Amino acid sequence: MNIHEYQAKQVLKGYGAPVAEGVAIMSVGEAETAAKSLPGPLYVVKSQIHAGGRGKGKFKELSPDAKGGVRLAKSIEEVVAHATDMLGNTLVTKQTGPEGKQVNRLYIEDGADIERELYLSILVDRTVGQVAFVVSTEGGMDIEQVAHDTPEKIITVAIAPEKGVTAADVAKLNEALALSGDAAKDGESLFPILYKAFVEKDMALLEVNPLIVMKDGRLRVLDAKVSFDGNALFRHDDIKALRDESEEDSKEIEASKWDLAYVALDGNIGCMVNGAGLAMATMDIIKLYGAEPANFCDVGGGAGKEKVAAAFKIITADPAVKGILVNIFGGIMKCDVIAEGVIAAVKEVGLTVPLVVRLEGTNVELGKKIINESGLNVISADDLDDAAKKIVAAVQG
Ligand code: ADP
Ligand code: MG
């Protein structure tokens, strides 16, 4: 689950991280009061969407020369003018895709005097099986370019879980970020704070880009992008309360209600599969035969008829889906239950695109019989290869 920058900063502030003063607003009417509550004379008006690259983003409704989604303002009037420009409009960044995201919230923040922009993130590094800091002196809006052109400027420091952030780790991080004096002292307290927040709140990613050294030599968290491990949310009611469903894919929200592992993708073949491994293999084989999956969908090992029907409805509700491949191995799950779920869903929502069903495993004969006798226009397949070829042919045909 992702949250907005201002929420992430609130969480980090709770752990003692240095963040600027700021006020989140949802209407232009609130902009003036918000700005007046800040020290000034420099303000920053920041679009709050669940995507990065806002500074370099462009608003669809504004002229291409208009400023981006993060703007400096030197007066209260300018804050109000930027807020008027941005609220309600659609911001397109490298991370939003071409359709962009509507800006419904702004964060009005105290402007900082920036000396240097650094990059810092914390993530679970699967190659070493540890939480790791990833840092670079080359922070700011071009970090992707740095990663691509000069990867040696990006340094990873893995943290031993039984020790936490040690003095040696701090020294490594300070050196990697070329911090000295007050900034290095700030680093000494900041790195363990960020690590603690990451671990305690079950974050999946904490990205501070930029972390800045200010003209006065102190560190400040200037941007914060945080996502949480969805499987751990049950123990963080405070974090759950920060969810902004308007930022999420409506199909993914519906899927999470049913406890389905569903991720929307860009292709046109909807997939309904049980088991993450089989779902991955199904997506791979669709690609092998020259098409693209519209989603990843794992209904899980023990899904009942209702869950299968819910998954089917979510997949068919996507207008990009031009064909559906149901690929189920009935282990714990029985093929006849799957068949009944699919049929129940088709009867309810109709079927306007080709459907290929490949069943294998427990009660497979019964499952096939139910599908064949349903009167539905279903193409049955014998194995995964056959199924993939058939659905790709049906969609591209
Ligand atoms: P994004 O990464 O989505 O583009 P950031 O929050 O990183 O958004 O802002 C982009 C740039 O705007 C930063 O790299 C920094 O140069 C500037 N900026 C952001 N917040 C402030 C602030 N409070 N004071 C001064 N400059 C800021
Ligand atoms: Mg940033």
Topology, element by element:
Layout: H1 5-14, E1 22-25, H2 31-36, E2 43-47, E3 58-59, E4 70-73, H3 76-86, E5 90-92, E6 101-102, E7 106-110, E8 114-125, E9 130-136, H4 143-149, E10 155-159, H5 167-176, H6 181-200, E11 203-214, E12 219-221, E13 225-228, H7 237-240, H8 250-257, E14 261-264, E15 269-273, H9 276-288, E16 295-298, H10 305-316, E17 323-330, H11 335-349, E18 355-361, H12 364-372, E19 378-380, H13 384-396
Parallel strand pairs: 15-17, 17-18, 18-19
Antiparallel strand pairs: 1-7, 2-4, 2-7, 3-5, 5-6, 8-9, 8-11, 9-10, 11-12, 11-13, 14-16
Helix pairs in contact: 5-6, 10-11, 11-12
Family: Belongs to the succinate/malate CoA ligase beta subunit family.
Pathway: Carbohydrate metabolism; tricarboxylic acid cycle; succinate from succinyl-CoA (ligase route): step 1/1; One-carbon metabolism; formaldehyde assimilation via serine pathway
Binding site for substrate: 274, 331-333
Strand content: 15-25%
Largest sheet report: 6 strands, antiparallel
Number of helices: 13
- Based on helices, strands and strand pairing, what is the structural class? alpha+beta
Q: What is the β-strand count?
A: 19
User: Which radius of gyration do the C-alpha atoms yield?
Assistant: 25 Å
Bound ligands, named by name, code or SMILES: adenosine-5'-diphosphate, magnesium ion
Mean pLDDT: 94
Count of domains: 3
Describe the fold and architecture.
Helix 12 links the parallel strand 18 and strand 19 (378-380). The two termini are 38 Å apart. The longest helix is centred in the middle third of the chain and has 20 residues, at 181-200. The protein has helices at 5-14, 31-36, 76-86, 143-149, 167-176, 181-200, 237-240, 250-257, 276-288, 305-316, 335-349, 364-372, 384-396; strands at 22-25, 43-47, 58-59, 70-73, 90-92, 101-102, 106-110, 114-125, 130-136, 155-159, 203-214, 219-221, 225-228, 261-264, 269-273, 295-298, 323-330, 355-361, 378-380. Helix 5 packs across helix 6 (181-200), helix 10 (305-316) packs across helix 11 (335-349) and helix 11 packs parallel to helix 12. It has three domains: 21-110, Dna Ligase, domain 1; 114-239, 2-Layer Sandwich (D-amino Acid Aminotransferase, Chain A, domain 1); 249-396, 3-Layer(aba) Sandwich (Rossmann fold). It is elongated and about 75 Å long. It has 397 residues and is an alpha+beta fold. The strands form five sheets. Strands 8, 9, 10, 11, 12 and 13 form a six-stranded antiparallel β-sheet that branches. Strands 1-7-2-4 form a four-stranded antiparallel β-sheet. The site of magnesium ion (MG) has 3 residues, from loops.
